[in-house]
Amino acid sequence: MSKSQQQSLDEDAVFLEVSETSPEFLHCEKERQAVERLLSAGPEAFYSSIGTGRSGCFLSPAEVSQITSWAQDYHFNQVQREQDGVEGSSEMEDLCSTYFPCTSETPAPNLDLGWPEKGPWFTMGSVTVHTNPPAEGEPPVREIIRRHLQKATQVIAIVTDRLTDGAIIGDLHNAASRDVAVYIILNQRSIQENFTINRLRHPNIRVRVLGGKTFCSRMGRTVVGEMKDKFLLVDLETVIHGSYSLTWTDAHLHRQLVTVLSGPAVDSFDREFRILFAASLPVAVTSRVLDTHVDATQKLKDFSNLRLQKPFSLEPEIFNPPSPPADSLLDWETMGVIQRECCFQESHLDRHEEIPPKNNMLFEKNTPIMDRFTNIENQFVDKKRTAGLY
């Protein structure tokens, strides 16, 4: 339980007022109510609750759209467990919804592949900053990461949003084949788009997923954020952390910055990884890949039907919404609240669709194209021969 929650249980506790200019300012009741309106009623209700001034809008249009698409009804999930070394097993826990540290009732997962014991540090450590693209004479970030992975002898612990780089995955397999324990924690929402998860199958590799923090409204709506931690821990001696994701595009297209740490600072990442690992859930690699394959097959099968259907939106459809205030400084069209109808001049292609075909023979399914031209040519030759006889 946090310190603020402990103080709230004390009737004699005195809370000092925190203004918006104070560094301690984090939670705002008006912002919380506005987010609840967004989750329950959509973007229009959100913008109406914050007023017409730009200073009161604490979310960008992209954030509003993102939160709206992530919102869902709250429900109890089955608590994932690891029983008898089998991943993906689950059972319902009898947890009280009003008890604050409900997740503490579930035992933390074990680092079953082993975790080395680290003694006291006798050196001050070092800090090195690398950029992508690299500075003159410096190695690329991808090379630095791969060299550390290839030199690992005990454990590799990775926390990242995406892991799709084939070269990195190959290094992890080689390390696992050398009896190096490999633990990977991926962002829970990104794993739904990851089709390379099956490539991480190995007896010495453990893959788990984790999301961000959860916002629950009083109306039973909830939204879960993302896990944006990115660091790589090797043998509890070296940490590589920064904005670099383990993808081909980050290696070749994006600008990145990473810091390589060694020494006592590694202990903080050691503790943080074990906290994230305890909060994460296992990934059933085989079943997930099979489900993805079946889902992709079904989508291809129904592709012709989907083309004829109206594209659906993740945002709730609002019929006959009230007009925004005329004196508002907000760009309601950019924020997606209203859509102005644009009249375009009718093109010849549009008019062509309404003109019925004069010759239905050209649109028959079972008539080959070459046969049509052959028939026309034969008719012309027959007429010419017939004319020559008379």
Automatic annotation (TrEMBL):
Occurrences of domain Scaffolding anchor of CK1 (ranges): 18-281
GO molecular function: protein kinase binding
Protein's GO biological process: signal transduction
UniProt xrefs under Pfam families: SACK1
Gene3D superfamilies in the cross-refs: Endonuclease Chain A (3.30.870.10)
Stored PANTHER family: PROTEIN FAM83A-RELATED
Similarity comment text for this entry: Belongs to the FAM83 family.
Name of the protein: Family with sequence similarity 83 member E
Native source organism of the sequence: Scophthalmus maximus
Species lineage: Eukaryota, Metazoa, Chordata, Craniata, Vertebrata
